[in-house]
Amino acid sequence: MERYKGFLISGSAVPTFAARFDWYSQGTILRPARLGAVVEIKRIKGGIFNSKEAAEEHGLQLCKDWIDSGLDALPTKAL
User: Fold this and answer.
1) Residue 55: beta bridge partners?
2) Which of 6, 13, 15, 18 has a CA positioned 20 to 30 A from the CA of residue 49?
3) What is the pTM of this model?
4) What is residue 45's three-state secondary structure?
5) Are 57 and 73 spatial neighbours (Cβ–Cβ below 8 Å)?
6) What is the model's pLDDT at position 76?
7) Is residue 25 packed enough to be buried (19+ CB in 10 Å), middle (13-18) or exposed (0-12)?
8) Based on the number of CB atoms within 10 Å of its own CB, is 58 exposed (0-12), middle (13-18) or buried (19 or more)?
9) Distance CA 38, CA 78 (A)
10) How many CB atoms lie within 10 A of CB 27?
11) pLDDT per residue as tens digits for the range 1-38
């Protein structure tokens, strides 16, 4: 998990065993809430990769791209 433009982002690799051992990339975007809590605001599913590390890196990039694109559908109500 890392900080990016005031958000916490995480890239993860989700195993898939359909035909062989591959990994789906997934990005998760969180933001701080009241009293030290953290709220998940977006989860993005990406493509399939041969390595766990590549899937994790892609998940982080998905998060950065989503944040940079203008935060589509970001809740505006303070939590």
Assistant:
1) none
2) 6
3) 0.80
4) strand
5) no
6) 46
7) buried
8) buried
9) 12
10) 24
11) 899 999 999 999 999 876 678 999 999 999 988 888 99
Q: Where are the alpha helices (DSSP H) in the chain?
A: 52-68
Distances (CA, A) of 73 to 24, 29, 59: 24, 13, 19
Count CB atoms within 10 A of the CB of residue 38. 12
8 Å CB contact between 24 and 55: yes
Q: Which two tokens stand for residue 17?
A: 């065993």
**C-alpha of 10 from chain center:** 5
Please give the angle made by the CA atoms of 46, 64 and 69, to the nearest 5 degrees: 95
Identify the pLDDT of residue 21.
82
Which tokens belong to 44? 């993005």
Q: How far apart are CA 68 and CA 45, in angstroms?
A: 17
Map tokens 């970001």 to a residue. Answer: 74
Extract the tokens encoding 47.
Answer: 């493509």
